[in-house]
Design a protein that fits this description.
It is built from 15 helices and 14 strands. The chain is α/β, with parallel strands linked by helices and 402 residues long. It folds into two domains: 146 residues, Nucleotidyltransferase, domain 5 (2-Layer Sandwich); 187 residues, ATPase, nucleotide binding domain (Nucleotidyltransferase, domain 5). Belongs to the acetokinase family.
Length: 402
């Protein structure tokens, strides 16, 4: 069966088409600037080249139509008819406490996603627009939603609840949900396969470190805690997000500056983190380059960034009564060798011993700890799309998910 995976944002659509007989990627690309001027689609061709096509894309429907057109194109495409697509899988960021597993799309599921828009207004609105576009354009094709926070649904209540009046949870669903769950799910399991360990008997700390970043404690195949919270703002220091902060610091600055809640949210999400500290960029490569040139704020930002990762690793080792494997993944985690070394420095008490030569690698599966390290530290490139494709195939063919 061929499975189309869509990741629809507020003004974008990323896509991959898989042949699930061998999980081969047949086509991939992305639509940008939906609803804006100068919208376009960028398609990755079979030879590795990329082709960009400008288009008028007022809504997600036109964006999905353009994806279909490119899939059918004799030069860029890989299918002769849309009938070859057996099912469509969607990434959905926020499933709240309504969805604990991937599921087939029904009117009730769409209503549930819509009801959660206020918890992820930018993301869920875009996801729902993509789902409805496929509803209209391919009404007979099954669709599956794979929720970012579903993998974290195994957290115990004492881990996901906040110490606020309980009615905040019962009335407004305020709790820790966590995100990047599809990535944490993939790399935690893949790391155990790679190391020939029993996933159901292994304590894994997964570090998804990119422009958005989160860490999860996965004990015997189940998440017991994760760093992001009600929203993706909590936890680690990120590219433009502040991560953990004293709530009173937020209200103090609102009083001082006169910012509205929306304006403060913009500051904490888009003008803080590495960008806010350095004033240079939210891209860690730019900050690393600046630090190498002696920029003191960049040096400080890198120290803060690594320190917070180290704190969460230590906390989650305590939460699981030990750790067997630490996994690095995502843009920074897969590519910035110095950040991995700095974050793991000082974890000798856990039995972590890094190997600088092994660590000198980017974007490939590898053990990066030394042979005598009690804890295995591994680099596992993430692949969220294949997780979505696998769940979509299973549900579309009537199988039960694990």
């Amino acid at each position: 069966m061929k499975i189309l995976v869509l990741n629809c944002g507020s003004s974008s659509i990323k896509y991959k088409l898989y042949d699930m007989t061998d999980e081969r990627v047949l086509a991939q690309g992305g639509v940008e600037r939906i609803g804006l001027d100068e919208a376009f689609i960028k398609v990755k061709l079979a030879n590795g080249d990329k082709k960009q096509i400008m288009a008028e894309l007022p809504t997600h429907k036109e964006g999905v139509q353009l994806v279909f057109k490119c899939l059918l194109d004799p030069e860029m495409g890989s299918i002769k008819s849309l009938d070859e697509i057996g099912a469509v899988g969607h990434r959905v960021v926020q499933g709240g406490d309504l969805f604990e597993k991937s599921c087939l799309v029904t009117p009730e599921v769409e209503q549930g996603i819509e009801s959660l828009i206020e918890l992820a207004p930018v993301h869920n609105k875009g996801h729902l627009a993509g789902i409805k576009a496929v509803d209209e354009l391919m009404p007979d094709v099954p669709q599956v939603t794979v929720f970012d926070n579903a993998f974290h649904s195994t957290m115990p209540d004492y881990a996901y609840l906040y110490a606020v009046p309980y009615e905040w949870y019962t009335k407004y669903h305020v709790r820790r949900y966590g995100f990047h769950g599809t990535s944490h799910r993939y790399v935690s399991k893949r790391a155990c396969e790679f190391l020939d360990l029993d996933y159901k008997k292994t304590k894994v700390i997964t570090c998804h470190i990119g422009n958005g970043a989160s860490i999860a404690a996965v004990k015997n195949g189940k998440v017991i805690d994760t760093s992001m919270g009600l929203t993706p703002l909590a936890g680690l220091m990120m590219g433009s997000r502040c991560g953990d902060i004293d709530p009173s610091a937020v209200t103090f600055m609102m009083e001082k500056s006169g910012m509205t809640p929306h304006e403060m949210s913009e500051y904490l999400n888009k003008k803080s983190g590495v960008l806010g500290m350095t004033g240079i960029s939210s891209d860690m490569r730019d900050v690393e380059n600046a630090a190498n040139e002696g920029n003191e704020k960049a040096v400080l930002a890198l120290k803060m960034y690594a320190y917070r990762i180290k704190k969460y690793i230590g906390a989650y080792a305590a939460a699981m009564d030990g750790v067997d494997v630490i996994v690095w993944t995502a843009g920074v985690g897969e590519n910035q060798t110095g950040m991995r070394l700095d974050s793991c420095a000082g974890l000798g008490y856990l039995g972590v011993k890094m190997d600088a030569e092994r660590n000198n690698v980017r974007g490939e599966e590898r053990v990066i700890s030394s042979d005598d390290s009690k804890v295995k530290v591994v680099l596992i490139p993430t692949d969220e799309e294949i997780v979505i494709a696998r769940d979509t195939l299973a549900l579309a063919t009537g199988k039960t998910l694990e």
